[in-house]
Design brief:
Layout: H1 2-18, H2 21-91, H3 96-109, E1 115-120, E2 134-139, E3 142-147, H4 159-162, E4 171-172, E5 176-177, E6 184-196, E7 199-211, H5 212-222, E8 229-233, E9 239-241, H6 253-259, H7 263-273, E10 278-284, E11 289-298, E12 303-310, H8 311-362, H9 378-424, E13 437-444, E14 452-460, E15 463-471, H10 475-495, H11 501-514, E16 522-530, E17 535-541, E18 546-549, E19 555-558, E20 577-580, E21 586-590, H12 606-617, H13 622-637, E22 645-652
Length: 653
């Protein structure tokens, strides 16, 4: 060990001491650059793999989405054809020749269809013929039309017919082999009826067939990259599309997995059949190798698609990228050494001074004066660039400080406004409660500040005033306008006790318009409820119906008057309506954030779901009724909130 130390000190250290700064810098940069490039290669390998895997997932997701969309389009188009046949059969009675011509035309003009049939109930088409089912299908020589089965074959026991006898309106079969053509098909069937003395009677079934071979060809054309293996299964595990093995061995994935004791494959198939979506790295028995797997549901039939990307393909791509990176790194080191060798002597002095200035700036001393140069060479340009960067950085930091301060002020104001707004909305306290009624209220703002509001208060010992309103607009203006409207209604109610709800809204409307408060308006219900008699007197300003739940659970929608919102038109007269709320009956008032709540498909929640909810739960506690309805709306919106939700429920005990 001492000999090695002696050699290092006497020869190696001595050798480097005698060399110039360019030589030392070249060797130092060579060592450092080599280490950096090696580390960079490992980092590049890691992140490149992440990016490639992400790209695989994105490609798989895109292919799956396009495939699902195309299959769903085929399904919907086929369903429309079958329903068209039903509409024809229910409007007219066609002769055999006309039936044949119609079926042939439909199959010929719809490329997704392999065949189409009209299967009649026994003796329904002709009292002399028990079974009649003309069938048009594709052949190499064109469209062929036959009486599908012999007159003694009971096709009514086939799934596409028998499953419609229990009242179903439509039915999709699992894949099966058709008896005449021996083709593997899936079938969509719809019943059609005749009406005898006012009674609907099953007349027959319209049926359209899709060839799995044709469907597989369509699916294969979607992904031309030939990098992914695809598999499509039905809900019961039947294979719809499976290109990389003999499909005869794999009619059903569940049966194949059990037969070959492939538990992981069976679990994967069940995950797919359950409608889940996932992306994972796993061993695939069907490929007999590891792969990246993406699976997702397809449409409304319960099908699922799986896309396999072999891991060996990913490793192959990584190897190619690494070879390229290594080559680039080696060339970079060589070029770097050559550049350093030629420019070290000329640049070393100015660079040291510049480095010193940069270090001071990097530590936060932005006022340090960088010595600029009038030289037009690289050092001069670099020096002036750093000077410009220093000035830009100072300006940026100042702007950042100002922007940050403004943002913090805005967020603070927003929080204060939200707190104030919540504080002016009343709570149902023990002092407010009475045994003669129950009250529930909940407001869920879409943002920090709501444009909805509610209020309830006693105007005498036996009358409660109730307000539920929705202000146009959002944010601070809506919140301010909401507060002003709430207090205006309450003050007028308390100061003018002889006025009806409609007269009070008329006064508020004139007040808002005459004072030119803003260009905003609001819809609302103003209710006077007598807790002793159950008299429910109300006025509606541009709001939708309220819900009246009778003691037997029957729903009545009422309250629409066709009168504009408050603040909309001058000299608007608001009318009163009233009814008696019976014992055990419920009234629900709510803003449009509930019925107009939309999901990702832009489908609205709607009054039907609200009515069904109250019909089902009207005997439960008001808190359970209200909380579960709000929860259903939030789940329906799938966390994509666009409007405030306000719900107030009143029940007479």
């Amino acid at each position: 060990m001492s000999l090695l130390n002696l050699i290092f000190k006497n020869y190696i250290v001595s050798f480097f001491k005698k060399r110039g700064i360019a030589f030392k810098l070249n060797n130092l940069i060579l060592v450092v650059s080599s280490v950096i490039f090696i580390v960079a290669l490992f980092i590049n390998y890691h992140f490149t793999k992440i990016l490639l895997v992400k790209d695989i997932e994105n490609q798989a997701e895109t292919i799956a989405r396009i495939t699902a969309g195309e299959i769903e389009r085929i399904f919907i188009s086929s369903e429309e054809v079958a329903k068209f046949l039903v509409s024809i059969m229910q409007k007219s009675d066609l002769g055999k020749n006309n039936l044949a011509v119609m079926l042939a035309s439909i199959v010929e003009n719809h490329q997704q269809l392999y065949g189409g049939s009209l299967a009649f109930e026994p003796y329904e088409y002709d009292q002399k013929i028990k079974f009649y089912s003309p069938y048009a299908y594709e052949t190499r020589n064109g469209i062929k039309v036959i009486n599908q089965l012999s007159e003694t074959t009971d096709y009514t026991k086939f799934p596409w017919f028998s499953n419609l006898k229990d009242g179903k309106q439509e039915y999709w079969t699992e894949p099966y082999r058709e008896e005449i053509t021996k083709k593997e098909l899936i079938t969509y069937s719809v019943p059609f009826f005749s009406e005898v003395e006012g009674v609907k009677k099953l007349k027959g079934v319209a049926r359209v067939d899709i060839s799995l071979k044709w469907l597989s060809k369509i699916i294969k054309e979607i992904d031309s990259s030939e990098k992914f293996y695809a598999m499509i299964i039905s809900k019961d595990g039947s294979l719809i599309y499976y290109p990389f093995s003999d499909k005869k061995e794999l009619d059903n994935i569940f049966e194949y997995a059990k037969k070959n004791k492939e538990q992981s494959l069976e679990e994967l198939a069940r995950e797919m059949a359950s409608g889940k979506t996932n992306f994972l790295y796993t061993y695939v028995p069907l490929l007999k190798e590891t792969a990246w797997l993406y699976y997702a549901p397809i449409g409304h039939k319960g099908w699922a698609i799986a896309l396999f990307y072999p891991d060996k393909e990913l490793k192959k791509n990584l190897a190619q990228i690494n070879i390229l990176m290594i080559t680039i790194c080696l060339l970079g080191i060589v070029l770097l050494m050559l550049l350093i060798f030629f420019i070290t002597r000329k640049l070393i002095g100015p660079i040291i001074r510049l480095t010193h200035s940069v270090k001071l700036i990097g530590r936060g001393n932005l006022n340090w004066e960088i010595a600029t140069s009038n030289s037009n060479d690289e050092v001069g340009i670099l020096t002036r660039s750093f000077k410009d960067m220093q000035d830009s950085l100072k300006e940026y930091i100042e702007n950042l400080k100002r922007t940050t301060a403004e943002k913090e002020t805005y967020l603070t104001e927003l929080k204060i406004a939200s707190t104030i707004q919540n504080s002016i909305l009343p709570d149902i306290t023990d002092e407010f409660k009475r045994d003669l009624y129950e009250l529930y209220v909940k407001l869920v703002p879409a943002k920090d500040i709501s444009g909805d509001f509610y209020d309830f208060f006693y105007i005498d010992n036996q009358t409660i005033a109730i307000t539920v309103a929705d202000v146009s607009g959002k944010g601070f203006p809506a919140a301010f306008f909401m507060s002003m409207a709430k207090f205006a209604i309450k003050n007028i109610c308390n100061s003018s006790k002889n006025l009806t709800p409609g007269e009070i809204l008329t006064v508020v409307n004139e007040l808002i318009i005459s004072e030119k408060v803003s260009n905003m308006f609001f819809t609302c219900y103003l209710v006077f409820y007598n807790i002793n008699t159950g008299r429910f007197r109300y006025a509606n300003a541009g709001h939708h119906d309220l819900i009246h739940v009778l003691s037997n659970g029957k729903i009545e929608e009422k309250g629409m008057m066709g009168i504009p919102p408050v603040g909309f038109f001058q000299k608007t007269k608001y009318q009163d309506q009233e009814f008696i709320l019976g014992k055990g009956e419920i009234v629900a008032l709510f803003t449009d954030g509930i019925p107009e709540a939309s999901n990702l498909e832009d489908v609205q929640f709607g009054n039907k779901k609200i009515n069904e909810h109250f019909s089902l739960k009207y005997k439960e506690k008001l808190s359970d009724i209200g909380d579960s309805l709000v929860a259903n709306v939030l789940d329906f919106e799938e966390h994509h909130r666009f409007d405030d939700i306000t719900l107030l429920i009143l029940k007479r005990n």
